[in-house]
Write a structure and sequence with these properties.
A five-stranded antiparallel β-sheet has the order 1-3-5-4-2, sandwiched between helices. The N and C termini lie far apart (98 Å). It has 345 residues and is of the alpha+beta class. This is Relaxase/mobilization nuclease domain-containing protein. It comes from Massilia orientalis.
Length: 345
């Protein structure tokens, strides 16, 4: 029920929907490495291929019931190692249900100014390669969430290959975190690309504090052009099938090739520009390392820069595969034609 001021009455200390609508957080800035020693440490991790942290935001609960289903899923109905924002263990389905009820999701603002529906929560996954100590990983994620999600309610659960509830569990340990979209003051969590960059740097720092080698570089710094597959497409690929999404991308690539649309796309030009920036920074760093007589690291950086794979995209790979296939068919056809036209003895 609305009051005469046009806002929802407050409950349990939460702020009104009106304040939530007008709130705009300050833009988060990603500073990266700010001093030379930090840059050198990151260079060492990068050239030695230190494992990269992975943080994925997989949408969020669009309904109150959906949030509860996800809570029960990640905790396997309260049977897995799970904890809340206070660091207290959450055990059993009843505890999960009680925690969900305490979030008061019905008090969150359901739509933005344009009338579009807002998520009730965000589902975030923190992972590291196989054989990473799962307990240390869980502790590092706890340290991260207590700082980054202060004021928000959340539930986190550890998954290992042995406890993951999915049909085809990945081989690496990972932690699921479901975060209430609004904090106790009604301020909404905003997750942008710059947010994820900052989160990855922070998460890697937390892991190293627990003795886990971890790095956080951009795809451009790693020389990675192709985006990783989503979990659904990954599982389809593992079964030996082709996803409908990939089939559509292949059809688009073939159609562009047929129509002669081979000019570089804006994002390909941007990728090339980022590669030039990365190479410039690596060369400048190697030069400074030589000036400091750190020849070994300088040579590693120079070799790393030389070995970066060429910039590429999935669409271009598909088109090259199509061209190679057409050429092979033409070659075979030409060979058959020559055999047919050869005079018989």
């Amino acid at each position: 029920m609305f009051t005469e001021r046009g806002v929802i009455p407050e409950r349990n200390g939460r702020k009104s929907g009106l304040q939530r609508l007008v709130y705009r957080p300050a833009t988060q800035k990603f500073g990266g490495d700010v001093d030379w020693q930090s840059i050198k440490s990151k260079l060492r991790r990068t050239v030695t291929r230190t494992p990269e942290v992975v943080i994925k935001v997989k949408g969020g609960g669009s309904t109150i019931a959906g949030v509860l289903r996800y809570m029960n899923y990640i905790s396997r109905n309260g049977t897995l190692i799970a904890a809340d924002e206070k660091g207290e263990h959450v055990s059993g389905r009843d505890s999960v249900n009680a925690m969900h009820a305490s979030w008061d999701l019905d008090l969150q603002c359901p739509h933005d100014r344009k009338g579009e529906a807002l998520h009730q929560s965000f589902n975030i996954i923190f992972s590291m390669p196989a054989k990473t100590d799962p307990d240390k990983l869980f502790a590092a994620v706890q340290a991260f969430t207590q700082e980054r999600f202060a004021g928000h309610q959340y539930l986190m659960a550890l998954h290992t290959p042995e406890t993951d509830p999915s049909e085809s569990p990945p081989p690496h340990p990972h932690v699921h975190v479901v975060v209430r979209a609004e904090d106790e003051d009604g301020r909404r969590l905003h997750i942008r690309k710059s947010t994820l960059r900052a989160w990855r740097e922070d998460f890697a720092t937390k892991l190293r504090a627990y003795g886990i080698d971890a790095n956080a570089t951009s795809r451009a710094e790693r020389g990675v052009s192709l985006k990783g597959r989503g979990s659904a497409e990954y599982h389809i690929h593992e079964r030996g099938d082709v996803s409908a999404a990939k089939a559509r991308r292949f059809a688009d690539a073939a159609l562009e090739l047929e129509r002669g649309y081979i000019e570089p796309k804006p994002w390909e030009i941007a990728m090339a520009a980022r590669r030039r920036d990365v190479l410039r920074d690596l060369i400048q760093s190697a030069t400074r390392l030589r000036e400091e007589n750190d020849v070994e690291l300088a040579e590693q950086v120079e070799r790393y820069a030389q070995e970066l794979p060429p910039v590429d995209t999935e669409k271009r790979k598909m088109q090259r595969a199509i061209i190679a296939q057409v050429r092979e068919r033409l070659r075979q056809k030409h060979g058959q034609d020559r055999e047919t036209s050869s005079p018989t003895t």
